[in-house]
Amino acid sequence: METQILKPDENSLFAAKKIIEEGGLVAFPTETVYGLGANAFDGDAVKKIYEVKGRPQDNPLIVHVHKDYDISRIVCDIPDYALKLAKKFQPGPLTIVLKSRGTVSPIVSCGLDTIGIRVPSHPDAQKFLKAVELPIAAPSANVSKHVSPVTAQHVYADLNGKIPLILDGGKCSGGIESTVLDCTGEIPCVLRSGLVTREMIAEVAGDCGVFIPKKGEKVRSPGMKYKHYSPNCRTMLFPYEEREKALEEYERQRAEGVNAWIMCENSVAREFGTDKILALGENGEEFAANLYDKLREGEKVAELIIAVAPKEQGGVMAGVMNRLTKACGGQG
Ligand code: TXA
Ligand code: MG
Fewer CB near the terminus (10 Å): N or C of the chain? Predict the structure, then answer.
């Protein structure tokens, strides 16, 4: 299959609509990462997403809708606090998990009785959703476990020949996936951290929990149990306080002939003064926007990425740390 990369315009959006209606897949930009979309009502189309990505069959997909879509067609029992949160943060990088009405294919949520609803704010995502006039089930448009794509070229690198169309909306501004928020309980609970932080949610909803799986407890967001976001090279991760050790490791590896690169925030890059640097930026927002791009750049240029965790840990950094730990932690 030939994979086309097209800018969203009248013709490409018409082509996208046709592919979706015929049960095919279209990759599209969002403000977080690129998504790989299928008609959420069409079980056979949704199955293709799992096949193309090599995604485990028990990891549910979130459903993307146009900002004017009436979500009561697919979910029910929406608590007041969820309505408030939707009003404040949607369109935007917040996915709200609600009770399913049972109208979308059960394959979308892998048999769970809930559905994650996301209203992306990227103008091209909105154009795509308006054109297709359907709720779109979509995970990130990468091969399962690889780094999520933040450009059309990243999608192409992973899925060339496997899907017919990538809508090219430029580089995603957010850079890490949406916050996934369980809204089926008394208070909202963060299942996956992202750019809409726990603090921002608590300010609107009055309170907000964070789900931390205990040993043996059933995982509430099945994606959490898998290795994720990993570049195709060796990685190491050092806490900020141990950055000197990271530098020593870099020098040791280099002396042994290993093509090692350091990934860190700009201030640490200045402190180290080494030349093989993947610099992530000055603050949480820049870190999020650059992380996946730098991981993909890193796997091209380096044999080993030695990452230094950010100094700050609160707010947006919670999401950044979560992704960085999954990408670079626990290997070597
Ligand atoms: O920003 C994003 O969320 C991107 C763009 C494309 O919208 N999408 C994305 O999808 O990251 P994916 O499939 O890579 O991650 C979705 C996460 C997974 O961790 C999954 O387990 C969780 O959301 N999830 C989906 N439906 C759920 C549900 N009903 N209950 C709990 N967790 C759910
Ligand atoms: Mg993903």
Answer: N
Q: Which atom of ligand 1 is nearest to the CA of 93?
A: 1
pTM over 0.90? The answer is yes
Residue whose token pair is 């015929």: 22
- Residue with CA closest to ligand 1 atom 19: 223
Check: CB of residue 273 under 8 Å from CB of residue 263. Answer: no
Predicted confidence (pLDDT) per residue in 7-30, tens digit: 999 999 999 999 999 999 999 999
Residue 229 token pair: 């976001």
Contact criterion met (CB below 8 Å) for 192 and 180: yes
| Nearest CA residue ID for atom 12, ligand 1 | 139
**121 pocket-lining for ligand 1 (C-beta < 6 Å):** no
Report CA(35)–ligand 2 centroid distance (Å).
Answer: 9
Tens-digit pLDDT profile for residues 299-332:
999 999 999 999 998 889 999 999 999 999 864 4
**CA-CA distance, 161 to 164, in Å (whole number)?**
7
Q: What angle do CA 230, 236, 237 make, to 5 degrees?
A: 95
Residue entry with tokens 């959703």: 129
